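lol ok so funny story. i was supposed to be doing the assay writeup but got distracted and ended up predicting the structure for this chain instead. priorities right. anyway since i did it might as well share w the group, maybe its usefull for someone
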Amino acid sequence: MPTSAIYDEALQWYTEHWDPELTVGAWWELLATAGWSFPSWPEGRGGRGLSSRDAKLAEQARIDAGACGPPKGLATFLVAPTLLAYATPEQLDRYMPGIACGTDIWCQLFSEPGAGSDLAGLATRAVPDGDEWVITGQKVWNSGAQNAKYGILMARTDPDQPKHKGISYFLIDMTQDAVDVRPLREMTGDIAFNEVFLSEARVADRDLLGQPGEGWRIGMTTLSHERDPDNSGSGSGFDFAGADLQQTAGEHAATTGRDVDGFSLAMSGGANRLLDEILDGFDASTDPIRRQRMMQLAELRRTSRWSTARSVAAVKAGGQPGPEVSTLKVIGAEVSRRTRDLGLEAMGPAGMLWGADTPTAGQFHAYCMFTPAMSIAGGSDEVNRNIIGERVLGLPREPGEAEQRQRPWSELPRNRADPTERNLTPRKTR
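and the output, tada:
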């Protein structure tokens, strides 16, 4: 059992305050007020300003007390760190309480049909109109957008600047009529992703994050958190639909992290728990070769944590994340593949079964089905390896790339029509 002043303080607090009969909403509000929701966050924002080490000790105290964890999803592991790095005090006052208490669901609006791995090629436009911005364009692969109240959005505000410099970062209200969300159903039947059409959507000037033209820098900060395979925030589960705030906290704690889709398992770190269950259940950790592979997987995760820390430190020092963001993405995809392969190998013939009566009740198989997508989502392995080769290893850049990075975005050739030039008629599907 861990021993430290932080652990003892947290354990005492949980022992005194944990009540499984409280509603989820009441419990999460209590956690946020006391600063135990996300202990590494600043005081007054749902945290206590603890170091990463002390925050993990506090989390262990919660687990040992059997208490329900805080909300968890894109809002907590992507949006909150980005807001804490760049938001104004007024923006923090408006948005952080809903994130810490789990009342507000967020989604990410970055990728486009013509700008996936080449995110800087995005064509969604934001045009100033008085104290508002008018946004038109199309986004895709937007996780949980069908349930989101707010979104983080990158849009082009100056097409006459080079493609990396004319981008700004917005906080957008997803409930307005000019935002059309269309779910994308996967072959498993799950709906984790969506396409989003913005037809002159409105964003108040106060919801511009940072300054105009800083969107690329801010977006890379967001991606540095997304690409960490161990970045599951705090708490348990990964819920794109939002929790039932009227459910009892005890019932929520008993069911969280179960019967979720493969994407949620990949993003929440839940696959780590499933792999541990498999290795223990099949007594797989006794094989020396398999133990070696387990250690290799552990070292990859450790490397990822160090790279994430390097990115965060760069932002805190006033810079921006560098090529380590691409390293994180490549490592994350490799971690997913190795986790899948190790689990299936350990299960043996049982690894070919599908359904609720299989090991892990079919959850690990759902994760395995999603694993190939990790090599594509958030920038393909091939593109990120090119970035690493050029910016880390010093290999020659592709012909014409340097010149293209200096040309105005409006002059660059594109593979498809600019979505801002198409008629995007809202068709509500919520």
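The longest helix spans residues 288-316. The chain has three domains: 1-103+241-256, 105-226+397-430, 257-391.
back to the writeup now i swear
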